[in-house]
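User: Batch of two.

Assistant: Item 1 of 2:
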Amino acid sequence: MTIVDDQGRTEPPIAADETATLLGFLDYQRSTLAWKCAGLDAAALAATVAASTMTLGGLLKHLAYVESDWFSRALHGLDCDPPFDAVDWKADPDWEWHSAAEDTPEQLRSLWEDAVERSRGRVAEALAGGGLDQLARRTWPDGTAPSLRWILCHMIEEYARHNGHADLLREALDGETGE
């Protein structure tokens, strides 16, 4: 049975196999970010709170990059997707955060939504080719590589952490609150 909450998010399954549970929680976190950024104009997506330079637009662009980095570059050994493939990350390691202010809300949402869709396809491909135990093609400096299971858990953590930031930013913008 599929349960959809008041914000349109599909609840993760409560009694499913490991793969469906991990993918359910990742999609729930993705939907939470979409909810927190919904209906905002360019000024709202570029607004900061207190001393932080973090913005909701920056979060969208950062998480689009993280999707590309983990599911394209790490898992499949591909180059990062555009526009991230053309960035000089050594010269500007926070490029996605500050360059988001130059993008329209439509560009930011599209960039993130497209990255999520590509990631879903790449995860499905990896599941079909090796399951959750499949190791990433990009190894760490010590030669080890995380499994797809580890990457999915990391992505859930990444979204959950940043959704906490999104909660604070959105509440400061217009008073919108919620989990």
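Item 2 of 2:
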Amino acid sequence: MGLDATHDQPVVRTDRFDLRPVRRSDIGLMELYTGDERVARMTTSIPHPLPPGAAEAFVTRVTAAERHEDVWAMDATKVGGSELMGVIALERMDRNQSEVGYWVAPAFWNTGLASEAVRALVEANPMGNATMFASVFQDNAASARVLVNCGFEYIGDAEAYSVARQAKVPTWTYICKLA
């Protein structure tokens, strides 16, 4: 794994893919994947159905110089794979902490992609955080396993609003202490 800085957001390299900053050319595949109800229902912020322009607005927001989160595309073009298989993000929090969020396109589920992306981001720790948090909906056991396999520890139950479900959904919250 290696780091290369690009536009003040590093590229995180793994053997199978790179985590690189999201770019405008990702909009088409992002619309395709986030338009899938199975993806949207496991996130807090992706609506279903996906409104026109939502992916473009997201990319514009997360590539702005003044932003509260860094978002990386899971890009396997270096090994002949897809340019966008999912995204992973770190949202800045106070007290040297961040929150990890991610989604993976259904075609790449059960391939270890999410685990490898989370592990790479934790190891790279591009924001120099002391702590990373993550939450998953309680009906998303696969995502909970990803976090536990990457060194996150369960710290409690909560709930979060899901735009796609238009409801509050029970969550499990996890922490990973880095320093």
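Helices lie at 27-34, 37-40, 54-62, 113-124, 141-149.
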